[in-house]
Write a structure and sequence with these properties.
By secondary structure, the protein is of the alpha/beta class. The chain has two domains: about 45-200 and about 290-305, Rossmann fold; about 200-285, Rossmann fold. Helices cover about 35% and strands about 20% of the residues. It is built from ten helices and 13 strands. The strands form two sheets. The chain has an eight-stranded mixed beta sheet with strand order 4-3-5-2-6-1-7-8, with helices on both faces. It is globular.
Length: about 300
Amino acid sequence: MRKIVVFWVEKYFYNPSLVQKALSFLLLPLSWIYCFCMYLRFKSLKSRDFGIDIISIGNLSVGGSGKTPLVTALASRYKDVGIILRGYGRKSSGVVVVSSGGKILCGVDASGDEAMIYAYKLPNAKVIVGENRVDAILKAKEMGAKILFLDDAYSKHDIKKLDILIDVQSKNTSCLPSGPFRERLWSAKEAVIVKEGVDFKRVVELKNKSDKMSLVTAIARPQRLSAYLPEVVSKNYFEDHHSFVRNEVLDILQRDGSSSILVTYKDFVKLEEFNLPLSLLDLHVEVDENIFKIVDDYIGNKNAKKD
């Protein structure tokens, strides 16, 4: 049931039917109220300087946008880095240190899938999850981090940071619940807008390829993968952050007579413990040097003000 609802909402936001368009129109008054409340929230919050360089990578709409590979690409350039995110879908609460000093300190159930990706791909970083980003920032400082990257934290207006926003195109530009936008880019808020294909581009590496592969994935708007897929026996889409059980994946493998399951990294961190044959569609991004320069300048200017 949850899968049906999630896919219906994704279609409603990004590729609506006529009925869904009519529903979106009827919900416009609620969207105006919601957006106004978000504006009042923005105006009421004052940013706090934590004495550490903080860069947030996010987007204004719900759903996937490529935040994780972009954060990974940016963070890999620096030393003494901390990665902070909410840890959506995890079966834990509070502040949890996922990895530090090259060691993974918990399982994917406690970290959430996205945090575990960072733990795998950025072994020298401190990866921390927490509903309260302030508590997580203080923990990262305590552990010796000098630069922090926040995954999806534009709305944390009480934190002084550089905001980088991924521009996600949508025919529906309304706020929730009429459209997919959680918040607006407020005129009084400075942010750097980046676009896929202009400021960064995706690069795909297929690892452990087999002759017959079945795609299994649980990412937001999974149709985004189509442009990068090799030939597969079947495409099996699950709702974003789905918690897999071994038998449902094994059933697909046996039904299709495939030699391996093709997954993204987000799925891999959850499926590797099942001891099933996996092929990995490893997506990363190449970032334009201008974006690195923006981050370098922010860090340099902020440090200069401290001296």
